[in-house]
Structures are given as structure tokens and as C-alpha cells.
Amino acid sequence: MKRYNKIFSTYHMVYRLANSSEDQRTFALGIGRVFKNSLAADKIVIVFKHAGSYPLLKVKFDGKTQTVKSGGKSILTIREREIFASEREITQGKRMMSPFNFGETLGGVYLRRKTEFLEWEQRWFLSLCETMSLGVKLLAMRRDEKRLMVNYVKSLTRMLHQFVPTSYLHTSGVIKLVKEMGKEMRLTEKEINALEYASLLHDAGKTEVPTELLNKKATLTQDEYDVLRKHPNAGADMLKNMEMLKPALPIIRHHHERYDGKGYPSGLKKQQIPLGARILAIIDAFDAMYFGRPYKGKISLDMIKNEFKKQSGKQFDGKVVEVFLKVIDKADIKKHLRSCL
């Protein structure tokens, strides 16, 4: 009974890894630990094909040592090349190997230990590899989906720049700031990606605002302002059916909220406002001041810093302002921003 509980638990772990891993590296490390713990293997080599921008990804567990390499065939030893080139199942004595097949060979795994693998362990190993093949395929499909979504976001961003005169976030400068802010605030990769998508698409809802209103240089009337205030909700609603953009929707919807609760569309304040929206509010304001707008000239970096300090705790989250001021004081960030002018 104990053995069956272990087997069931291991399958559940593989399922969770397949559905939660962000990339092949994370998945390979996870299943490597599964093999190490469940089959007491001393040496494990896992190879995935088409690993992002590299032909191969290799994860190796050798005793207590763990290494990860990306590249071409040169990352494999001569023996590893021979093993994986055969693309066949091996369950002999102290070693086992199986390719990850799902319509095509997606990679493979090789195990070795000091004692011979029992017959039930060999059967279990091959069954696990079938399940893991599905996980590898799911990861590849998600990677392709992400690539398509990135291309879509880029196309939509170009369209916004062309048809929405106030959607002017300077992509190169802004993405650099987004990534640097994400690192400084210890955001996860998923949170940084959501913030990046939101920064590119935050004004998508302005496609539903009349062009003459967006181009107007005079002060808006209250009715006109009320129309403009609808664009965050309109943008989030427009993109809500795109699965990969769902983490970005709260940021898009609430990037015009103010820390003191006087913003729109929901009048949220302080921690009620999603962190990504509090970050984007600052980056959006910086972009407008540093690069300028057709209806408003740009101002110096020192003046921008003073403006953020004045609005700290009012329009903007003071802690996020503090981190942002630290970021734009970095020499490499200053150099990058100057190159974007």
C-alpha cells in the first residue's frame, strides 16, 4: 500500500509540475528531483530539444551536484550523445533511459544507480516518462502560444501608436524601466511579464474614445473628461478573453487610480490598488514628463524627481516612488534613457 501511495503522489507531482512550470528549465529540474527521490538514482541526465533560443537544454544530477546547460550538441558528453541518439527505451540492470515522445521526440532522460532497478521500478519509470512526455509537449505549446501572444501585443501596440495619439509610451525606455523596477521590487517573472504587457497595452481602451477628444489641446469639459475616464475599463474589457493577458488586466484597469483615492475608474486607494498598477502609474507619468507629449513639452530629470517627491503619498505610492527614484539614478538607466530621446 505504501508503494502505491508513493506512486500516486509522484504522478500528482509530475502533473503539478507540467501545469505550473514557467519554462523547460524549471520543469526539467523538477522532474529530475522526482526521479532522484522516487527511484533513488545517483545520476540523472535530462535533455530537452528546442530549448528556447538553443537547440538543447541539459539538466544533470550527479550525486549532490546539479548543473544546467543550454547550447548545441557540444553540451553533451560522447556517451550522452550515444545514449540519446538511439532514442530507444533501455531498462537494464543499473541504468534506464527513455525518450520523451509525443508525436515527435522532444528529449529524453537517462538514470543510473549503484544497485539494479527492480522490475516494478522499470515499469514505473517507463510509465512516468509517458506522463512527462505530455508535460514537455504542454510546455512547448505554451511557449508557442506565448510567442504568438508577444507578436500580437507588438502588433496591437504599433496600431495604438498609429491611431491613438496619446498612447505614447516609449517602448524601449519603458520596458527597461519595467524590468529594472521588477527586479528592485522582487517581482516574479510572471508579475514582470504582466507589467510589461500592461505597459504596452494600458491605453488600448482609448481606441473607443473619439480622436478629436484625444487631440484636444484645450481643457476638457466635465462631460469630455467623463468619456476619457472610461478608457481603463474599456481596455481591460477589450482584452479579457486573452488568457495570457489576464494577469495584466487589473494593472490596465487601475493604472489611473491615485494612492490618495482620488483617481479613476474605481476610486481605489493605497493597498487596494494592485501593485503593478501603482508601478505603471509612475512609469506612465515619467514617460509623459521625460519624453513629452504632442500637447505638452518634456521636462528635465531633476524637475521630474521633484515632481515625484511632491506627489509621493498623494498621487503615487511613496515606497514605489522611492524605488523608482533609485532606479532612474542608476548610470546605465540614465544612459539608456538618453539614447531613447
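Second entry:
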Amino acid sequence: MDKQKAATGLGQLAQHSVNQEKIAQEGGIAVLIAQLRSGRACVKKAAAMALQNLAVHATNHERIADEAGIFWLIHLLETEPADVRSVAADALGNLAGNTVNQVIIAEQRGIVHLIRMLNMGGLNEKVAAAGALRNLAMNADNREKIVEQGGIDLLIRLFQIRSPEGHAAAAGALRNLAMDDANKDSIAKRAGIAPLIAVVRTGTVEARKAAAAALRNVAFQHPVNQFIIGDLGGIPALIDLIKTATIDEQKKQAIWALEALIDHPDNRKRLVESGALPILEQAWESSNRAVLLKTHIENVLAVFVD
């Protein structure tokens, strides 16, 4: 059978969770990684796409790493055309859901190549690179590496491009980078707050959720950023997200962001004046089974009592 067709077939099968385990057990991972090492670009792309799908299954993270899959996927970032690089970056992003792999990818210069893609690549490359960096930024050492190589500026720049997937990936990466206090300052100084608020207002489901989470981290225990977000209209944007949320995770992230923002007295005043009380009360009433979320909503509602 033609290698490209075989790899494509495995990739299609690997879209289903049951098959992800079966393919690995039958030695499919080693076969696909062998196809990354040599052959036509179309074969490498098909193999990388199959590995991307297999890497959705958590037990395959270690298996792919053990077969040197991370090394060969990073090699594709160095040597192959743009369409292959994009798929390889997506595969690395899935593998970076594993804490050990986050370290391996960084040690093998994966971050260097992803930052280069984010800077100089086409749209698909930028989106894929941002998605991979989002997961890699869960690691503290990786956050430092990403920032040292100009990652914050490049991620913020991605908001200038019309790409819902890119906005979601960039917001997610900034959310994780903002777990470090110094990065909260950098995101604000590089004018990253305004585009996050804009995405909360008008983005897709995933993008709005990620942007609200990013605002929460940027604001958490940071009075200056709390004021900036409030001054730029972040509170009504978050209230609207609570009102119009299509999934519970959007509502949760917006509530958490508001909870971080109301540490600032100006924002408590803004919240009271926003007319948000009925929306928050409705959110509380509709969260019967989510005890933790109700507690966070009650913390926000307390502003109206004080």
C-alpha cells in the first residue's frame, strides 16, 4: 500500500478514541515515526497528522516520546514546507499536554522553532505554533524561555489577524504566561489587555472563554492591571459573556475574572453601576449543581451588599 495512503488511513482511524489505543498496541506509532524520518513531504505530513490524532489519547504521549517522536516532529519544523510544519506543531501541542513532554520539547529546541514559526510563518503556522506554546507554557521554565524569545509580543500581534482559532490560541497562551507576576506586567505594557477584552466581546466560544481566563490571570492580585482592565471596559464585556454564555466554562471564566477584578475599589463601583445584579443573580440561580461556581458568584454579589 502507498505510504501516504496508509498514514492517512491511520490518521482517520485515530480520530476515534477506541482506535487510538488499538493503533498504538499494534505498533502503529513506530511505523508512523519511521515515516517522519524519510520520504516525501506528503508522507511526512500524513504521518504527523496521524500522530497528532493519536496524541489526543493521554497514554500515547509517553509512547510517542519513547519512540523519539518528539525529536522527529521538531525536525520537521526545521526542514519541511509550511503545511508540514503546521501539522507537526499541532502534534507537538497535543504531546505538550504531558508534563514530561513539556520539558523534552523545550530541551530539544522545540520552543525556538515554534517562536520562529509564530514570528515568520504563514497564518496556519502561527496558529499551530501559538497552540503548542499555550500547552508548553504550563511549565514555569518554559514560560521563561517563551518570554525571553519575544513570545508575548508575537502572541499579542496575532490578535491583529482575523483568525478565531489564532485568537483562542493566543489568549490561551497569554493566560498561562500570566501565571507569572512579571508576565502580567509585560502583557499590560505591551498593550495586550485591550485585544483580550475585544475577544471577550466578539470572539468565538473558545476564544471568549480563553480571553476571559487570560484577563483573570492578568488581573489576579495585580491592582494596576485590575484598574486598566476596568478602565478599558473589561467589566461590561465580562458581564455580557455571563449573560450570553453558550457553555458553562465561559460563564465560569467570566465570574472568576470579575472576582479578581473587584479587589480594586474602582471596579467594585463600576460593577455596581453596571446594572449587572440581575444577570449575576440569574447566574447564581442557574448554577444549582455547581457548588464551587455558586461560591465564586456569591463573592462577586457581595459587592452589592457592601
